[in-house]
Amino acid sequence: xxxxxxxxxxxxxxxxxxxxxxxxxxxxxxxxxxxxxxxxxxxxxxxxxxxxxxxxxxxxxxxxxxxxxxxxxxxxxxxxxxxxxxxxxxxxxxxxxxxxxxxxxxxxxxxxxxxxxxxxxxxxxxxxxxxxxxxxxxxxxxxxxxxxxxxxxxxxxxxxxxxxxxxxxxxxxxxxxxxxxxxxxxxxxxxxxxxxxxxxxxxxxxxxxxxxxxxxxxxxxxxxxxxxxxxxxxxxxxxxxxxxxxxxxxxxxxxxxxxxxxxxxxxxxxxxxxxxxxxxxxxxxxxxxxxxxxxxxxxxxxxxxxxxxxxxxxxxxxxxxxxxxxxxxxxxxxxxxxxxxxxxxxxxxxxxxxxxxxxxxxxxxxxxxxxxxxxxxxxxxxxxxxxxxxxxxxxxxxxxxxxxxxxxxxxxxxxxxxxxxxxxxxxxxxx
Length: 431
What we know:
The protein has a seven-stranded parallel sheet, with helices on both faces. Strands 10-9-8-11-12-13 form a six-stranded parallel sheet, with helices on both faces. The chain has two domains: 49-234 and 420-430, Rossmann fold (3-Layer(aba) Sandwich), CATH 3.40.50.2000; 238-410, Glycogen Phosphorylase B (Rossmann fold, 3-Layer(aba) Sandwich), CATH 3.40.50.2000. Helix content is 45%, strand content 13%. The protein is built from 16 helices and 13 strands. It is an alpha/beta fold.
C-alpha cells in the first residue's frame, strides 16, 4: 500500500481536487486572484529596504506579565522608527480562525510595525474554513517566505512558526531560574523548560538579557561572551505615568511593602521571620503589607501569613490596581525585596522611582540595579534582615538619603534607551 502524503501536501492536494470538482469560472478567477494577492504581499515584504525583524507576539495572548510588558514597551518605543520594520507574528497568523484566541492586550501600532495575518475570503473554489485550514498548515512556509533578516523571540523560546525561517536569531532570556534555583521551579515544567532552553542556547545567534548578572550566568554556561548582550529594562506599569489613587481600604497608616507573587523564589518566609524578630526588639515596627497573588508552593507559607494577619502585624492585599500600587509605593516607610533570585528586579526600580527607601537581598542583580540606593541583607539571614530594617526605621536621615539616591538612580532605567539598544542588537545580529 502506498504511503499517505504528509498532511501539508495532502491539504494542498485536497484544494487542487476541489478546484477540479467545484471550479466555476468566477470561483476559479477569485481563487487565482487570492493566491496572487498572497504572492504579491510576500514579494512586497521581501523587497522592504529597512531592517526587517520578525517578532513573536504570543505573550500578548495571555495576561500581560513581565515578559508581555517588556515586549509591549520595546515595540511601543520603536513603533515610529524609519529604519526598521517590525513584523508581528502570533497565534492569529490566519485571520478569522475561530480556533485561535484573540490577543488580550492591544498590539502596538505605528509606521514601523506590520501585523502579519492571512484570511480565506468567500467565493473561492473551497470553503473559507478549508482555505484557513490550508493557510494554517502552510503557516511556517508563508512566514519563512517573508525573508525577515532577524527573528526575535522575546520570551526565551523560538515558536514553531519560526522553525523554517532563515534570519539571524535573537532571543531574550529574562533569567536562568531553571538552572540557578531549580528547587524554586515547578518540577512538572522545569525539566521540559530546561530542554527547550538548551535548544535555544544552540539555535540563537545573539542573546539579550535584562542585566549583567544574567549575562554572566549565561557565559558561565559556556555561551560565548560575544553572543550575549545585557540591556537594562525600563520601569513597570507604576513608572509609566501612573497617577497614584487612594490606597486599598485595608492599608494601615504605616507599613513596610513587599510586591511580588508569594512563591519560593520571592523568599517571603525570611521576611516573616525577620519581622517577628523585629517586633521582639522594637515597640513600634510598621506592619508588613504584601501585594501579589499566591503562586506555586504558596501553601507552605499560607499558615504563617494567616497567623501574622490574626496577630495584627501583616496585611495581604493580593493583586491591586496599578494606581493603588503607585500610592502604596509612595506611602511606604520602606520597601523590602528579599528574593533568592531575580533576573532584573522590577520592584526595586519602582520603589526607587517612587522615592521609597529600599531594603533588598544581597544578590548580584539587585546590587547591579539599586547600587548605593539601597541597604542589603543576605536572603538566608532573617536576623540580618531584622537588623537592617531596624536601622532604617530608626534613622530618618538614612531614609531620606536612600530616597534621594533612589530617585537619581531610577533615571538610569528608561525604555527609550532600552529600545535603542535593542535595535542596535538586531542590526549587529543581521550583519
